[in-house]
Design brief:
The structure holds 2 protein chains of 2 kinds.
Chain A (H helix, E strand, L loop, with lengths): L6 E10 L6 E11 L4 E5 L6 H7 L8 E10 L2 E2 L5 H7 L4 E4 L13 H12 L5 H14 L5 H4 L9 H13 L5 E5 L7 H18 L2 E6 L2 H7 L2 E6 L2 E7 H6 L4 H9 L18 E15 L7 E15 L3 E5 L6 H8 L7 E6 L2 E2 L5 H9 L1 E4 L13 H11 L5 H14 L16 H13 L5 E5 L7 H18 L2 E6 L2 H7 L2 E6 L2 E7 H6 L4 H9 L10 H4 L26 H5 L5 E2 L5 E2 L30
Parallel strand pairs in A: 3-8, 3-9, 6-7, 7-8, 13-18, 13-19, 16-17, 17-18
Antiparallel strand pairs in A: 1-2, 1-4, 4-5, 9-10, 11-12, 11-14, 14-15, 19-20, 20-22, 21-22
Helix pairs in contact in A: 3-4, 6-7, 7-19, 13-14, 13-15, 14-15
Chain B lengths: L1 H31 L4 H6 L5 H11 L5 H13 L5 E6 L19 E3 H36 L4 H14 L3 H15 L15 H28 L1 H8 L4 H39 L5 H10 L3 H29 L6
Antiparallel strand pairs in B: 1-2
Helix pairs in contact in B: 1-12, 5-6, 5-8, 5-10, 5-12, 6-8, 7-8, 7-10, 8-10, 9-10, 10-11, 10-12, 11-12
Classes of the chains: A alpha/beta, B mainly alpha.
Chain lengths: 622, 329
């Protein structure tokens, strides 16, 4: 592609604030985007990649200041362009999609109407009917099911993945020459993210749009980009072809980034092993249904079957991973397990005692043994209370310590989770997400729990911080024999941390087994779909072309008859339509709910050398 | 459609219960509180036996629940009773009649008293509310969009100033300045539309600070929502985003504060203002009725006011959920 670049960035520098106190966030950024190509920008959180992507559409607001440089689009310097001229490009020739699709549109106006509004602003001559037709055609093109009726639905009725598709329609409806995509797959489930990437690639080919694709995931970048720019602390450290950067990265930082990409199959060693200790937590046939009002009919209620009969056991000192897409019932299950809500049926037994039978003090002391850690490290800590007081509160509630003894215990636990006891009287203002999560962990650990439920606890943290906390969890587990229940959609984390893994789909466990079975020879097509959708830099045994189908799980109000996965299963047979497969034991403790045998599924495309016990050295450790 | 039907069925049935409860509380409190209406009807010279006889005739000696049920029965027949005090011709007739002389049928029907006073009150309320809107809507929006700068300061200082002016005092000062001193505007009573101007200004001064504040807060919150800036990056103008989207979203909290707070303020303000200006509306009628222990009038106004409040709130909630479909009521 020897043509003139569509967009060039020259020596761009951006500072926070002005004068002496100004802090450089981007310095001397220079790169070019060729027509009809995809440029990937990769960087960790805090590297300035969102700022850079916003600068490309001239969306830099005070207190941020462009101190030097140009962003030249077809001969025009966007940063120096008067607002009226910029407005003629923005949303027309240059489109932008952000990381959070759910807040991008007015929540009170149907999605389609807002896209139509944009289209008619851009092409004022268009009649309402014509604009509507074009939007619906485009919604169809990004494979939004029943686009015609979806046109009139509101943003809150769209899932994150559907919403991101709608934002892609919104960006592409004006046939832009350049699309800036800032981390667009980050908040999505792996299966949906994989679909979005595939979609974007197809559209890029069909429309000839140039894309600047910004991401923090190396696996995603190499999937889509032709060229990659590596951003570290506001500076470009390397720019190369995608092929070359994977094979021979020049800069040490690039090598470090590549090494940090979690491996699921190659060079995995020492995955956690199944325990033989006594059972601590036993869940038997637990179910929960919520009733929601049906707006379309009189007095009718819809039944949302969030959890539909889940059974499993966790042994002392073991880690069980619970994985599945959003909406599969993971979080409802965690609410049931932490007895925030009672299940409709079934029993949750802790050390052989049914939780439902407990009341008053007995329930309180059971709760002490059972702690829940949530995802959001910001809203889970009171901001006007000192860290020490926050951590001490459970001890006060359970009347376990007071006075000096209290302070000692809190300081001890702070030290154990890696917080300096000097922070005892400090407020949580200014703590990083990782440190805040440590405060949460300390608050749970101070009660010496025997079971910790980690509901997406590490999802909000970057990979470095995640790795540190995983080590911390390992240490705590070894020292105190704690049982963990990891509820997560992060397969790499589960691969590293959990001895046994349960895969949930539409409120049921479809497969459960030890770590190796789930990752190396899973028997359920859904497990394989999940594994095929992970973006990694390694060769995958399960390929998206064999497993990944379009679409998302059916909503839990209208669950299909027979096998609930049949609407998305590529290998569906006649039996699946009528008979729901039971969770049947395969080997050892593994079980899967599928009518098909292993022999009816495609063979893994590569054999994985990462089995425990194999002598393969782990090439690059975290 | 189904949603709207169910919404109104449910909310109206709840509303009827609320109005009944309010009616009973007012009804009972009036009869428990000191002050005998018979003394005011018959005047200070009436004999105890005459008073007792009149009280019996009005049914005031029966147990309160019995009186209440009888009252409800009459209402069901469309009869809200007659004033204890006011005659058909409109004058107050308390204190000059003997017990047997003038039967209560000659007194004015409450419903007619209200029907006569209501248009004046509606006129005053509408003028006051419009005047308040005229000032607060532009100022509130400007203050909300630019969270620093002069509109925000003007809005803050103006609403602080207005909120600290008691309406009784403002009323008297305005009468003095605009009417007594300069003779520009009429002030007391009502003969033509000019009489509504000064009272409407007083009502507006009471409403404006609350409105400025809630409008600017609601607009500011929505301007900070990501969709406002992202909309501009998507290619829509800031103007379009403000008028088509931000104001739409801001309308929901505004409607709520209107239904919950401002209607109450408006009603309370009207009572005081009508009294100061001798403005012949519902407020003046009610205040006089309270002084005269005119039970039927007080009761009916209370039922009427609570019905209006309940229905405005139903309408507000319906409008809110129509604007923002995530809301459930």
């Amino acid at each position: 592609m020897g043509t003139e670049p569509l967009l060039t960035v020259e020596n761009l520098s951006i500072c926070l604030g002005t004068g002496d106190g100004a802090r450089a966030l981007l310095s001397n950024i220079t790169f070019a985007v060729k027509p009809k190509s995809v440029l990937g920008i990769i960087g960790e959180s805090g590297s300035g990649k969102t700022l850079l992507s916003r600068a490309l559409v001239n969306w830099v607001r005070a207190p941020l200041q462009v101190t030097a440089g140009k962003v030249i689009y077809q001969g025009l310097d966007l940063l120096a362009l008067p607002e009226t001229q910029m407005a003629r490009l923005r949303g027309r020739e240059i489109a932008y999609i952000g990381a959070n699709p759910t807040t991008a549109l007015d929540p009170t106006v149907p999605v389609g109407h807002q896209i139509e509004e944009k289209l008619r602003t851009i092409e004022p001559g268009l009649s309402g009917q014509e604009a509507r037709k074009r939007v619906i055609a485009m919604l169809d093109a990004v494979r939004i099911p029943s686009a015609r009726s979806r046109f009139d639905e509101y943003p809150f009725q769209f899932s994150g993945g559907m919403m991101q598709r709608a934002m892609i329609v919104d960006a592409l409806i004006s046939n832009p020459k350049l699309l800036v995509a800032d981390n667009i797959t980050q908040p999505l489930d792996v299966t949906v993210a994989a679909q979005i990437l595939r979609l974007l690639r197809d559209l890029q080919r069909d429309f000839g749009t140039s894309i600047v694709f910004v991401s923090s995931s190396f696996g995603t970048i190499v999937d889509i980009a032709d060229e990659v720019v590596v951003l570290d602390k506001g500076k470009i450290v390397e720019a190369q072809d995608t092929g070359r950067i994977q094979k021979s990265p020049d800069h040490p930082y690039t090598r470090e980034l590549l090494a940090k990409v979690p491996r699921l199959w190659h060079g995995v060693s020492g995955v956690p092993q199944v325990h033989v200790e006594p059972v601590v937590l036993s869940v038997r046939d637990v179910a929960k249904t919520y009733e929601v009002k049906d707006r379309a009919s009189l007095f009718k209620k819809n039944r949302v079957q969030a959890v539909r009969g889940v059974s499993f056991e966790v042994r002392r000192g073991e880690s069980l991973g619970l994985i599945g897409e959003s909406g599969c019932g993971k979080s409802t299950l965690s609410r049931l397990l932490s007895s925030l809500e009672p299940p409709d049926r079934g029993a949750i037994e802790v050390n052989g005692v049914d939780v439902a039978t407990l009341h008053g003090d007995a329930l309180l002391s059971m709760r002490r043994r059972f702690q829940l850690l949530l995802q959001d490290p910001y809203n889970s800590i009171p901001s006007h209370v000192s860290i020490g007081t926050t951590i001490a509160e459970p001890l006060r509630i359970h009347r376990l310590a007071s006075g000096n003894g209290l302070r000692e215990r809190v300081c001890a636990v702070m030290q154990e989770v890696g917080l300096s006891p000097d922070l005892y009287d400090a407020l949580p203002v200014g703590l990083s997400a990782g440190q805040r999560q440590r405060v949460n962990i300390a608050r749970a650990m101070v009660l010496e729990p025997s079971v910790l439920i980690l509901d997406e606890t590490l999802s909000a943290l970057d990979q470095v911080e995640q790795a540190k906390l995983l080590d911390l969890f390992d240490n705590l587990q070894r020292k105190h024999g704690i049982t963990y229940l990891y509820i997560s959609h992060d397969l790499a984390m589960v691969r590293r941390a959990c001895a046994r893994i349960a895969v949930m789909y539409l409120g049921k466990i479809v497969e459960i087994g030890d770590n190796e079975t789930i990752f190396d020879e899973p028997a359920h097509p859904y497990t394989r779909t999940l594994l095929s959708s992970v973006s990694t830099v390694e060769a995958k045994p399960f390929l998206p072309k064999d497993y990944l189908l379009e679409g998302e799980p059916p909503d839990p109000i209208h669950i299909p008859e027979g096998c609930s996965f049949r609407s998305r299963c590529p290998f569906v047979i006649e039996t699946c339509r009528s008979v729901e497969p039971p969770l049947s034991t395969r080997a050892g403790t593994s079980a899967a709910a599928c009518h098909l045998g292993l022999e009816r599924l495609p063979m893994p495309s590569v054999m994985t050398p990462g089995r425990p016990g194999s002598d393969l050295k782990q090439m690059d450790s975290l | 459609m189904a949603f709207a039907l169910e919404f109104f069925l449910r909310r109206i049935s709840q509303g009827v219960l609320i109005v009944l409860a309010v009616a009973f509380v007012i009804f009972a409190l009036l009869r428990i509180a000191p002050g005998d209406p018979i003394r005011i009807i018959l005047g200070p010279m009436a004999t105890p036996s005459a008073m007792e006889e009149t009280a019996e005739r009005f049914g005031l000696r029966d147990p309160i629940p019995v009186q209440f049920l009888r009252y409800l029965g009459d209402i069901a027949k469309g009869d809200f009773g007659n004033s204890f005090i006011r005659g058909k011709q409109g004058g107050t007739t308390g204190g000059s009649q003997d017990a047997a002389g003038s039967p209560p049928v000659e007194r004015a029907a409450v419903i007619e008293l209200i029907a006569k006073a209501l248009p004046y009150t509606l006129l005053l309320a509408a003028c006051g509310f419009l005047l308040a809107c005229l000032v607060s809507i532009p100022l509130g929006i400007m203050a909300g969009v630019r969270n620093n700068g002069w509109p925000q300061k003007v809005a803050l200082y103006l609403s602080s100033l207005l909120v600290s002016l008691p309406n009784v005092w403002v009323g008297i000062v305005l009468i003095y300045l605009l009417s007594a001193r300069t003779g520009w505007l009429p002030a007391i009573g009502y003969r033509h539309i000019g009489y509504v101007i000064i009272p409407a200004i007083v009502v507006a001064i009471e409403l404006a600070p609350v409105m400025i504040r809630s409008i600017s807060v609601a607009v500011a919150t929505n301007v900070q929502d990501p969709f406002y800036e992202i909309g501009q990056v998507r290619g829509l103008s800031a103007r379009a985003m403000l008028f088509r989207h931000v104001l739409r979203n801001a309308a929901v909290p505004l409607l709520n504060s209107f239904g919950a707070q401002m209607i109450g303020m408006l009603l309370g303000g009207l009572f005081v203002v009508e009294y100061i200006f001798s403005f012949p509306g519902i407020g003046l009628l009610t205040i006089n009725a309270v002084f005269q222990r005119d039970f039927p009038v007080i009761q009916t106004v209370a039922i009427f006011a609570s019905t209006v409040l309940v229905f405005i709130n139903i309408a507000v909630d319906f409008a809110s959920t129509t604007i923002d479909r995530r809301l459930k009521f």
